[in-house]
Specification:
Number of domains: 1
Number of helices: 4
Radius of gyration: 15 Å
Helix content: 40-55%
Shape: flat
Distance between the termini: 13 Å
Strand content: under 5%
Number of strands: 0
């Protein structure tokens, strides 16, 4: 569903790759294959992954979990609305 909404042609936009080059030796580029789950997960990690802002031994509080849950609800709502308005 994410790829259908964000990159329906399965081609990673060049501007995404350019942005990720800052500090990364090998950012995702090219086309995402439906069968290449590893590459899809790597792309998701670049889009919403850990950018090093959390310390390895940091204990996250309940409030952080609540914020993440609310953020995911918001993301799903936007994705549902985007997919509903996209002609098939």
């Amino acid at each position: 569903m994410v790829w259908d909404s964000e990159i329906p042609d399965r081609k990673i936009p060049a501007d995404w790759t350019f942005k990720w080059q800052d500090g990364n030796a090998d950012p995702p580029a090219g086309t995402i294959s439906p069968d290449d789950v590893g590459r899809q997960l790597r792309l998701l990690n670049f889009g919403i992954g850990d950018f090093g802002v959390h310390l390895g031994n940091e204990i996250l509080g309940v409030g952080f979990g609540i914020v993440v849950a609310l953020l995911l609800i918001e993301v799903f709502e936007h994705l549902t609305n985007d997919l509903a308005s996209t002609p098939t």
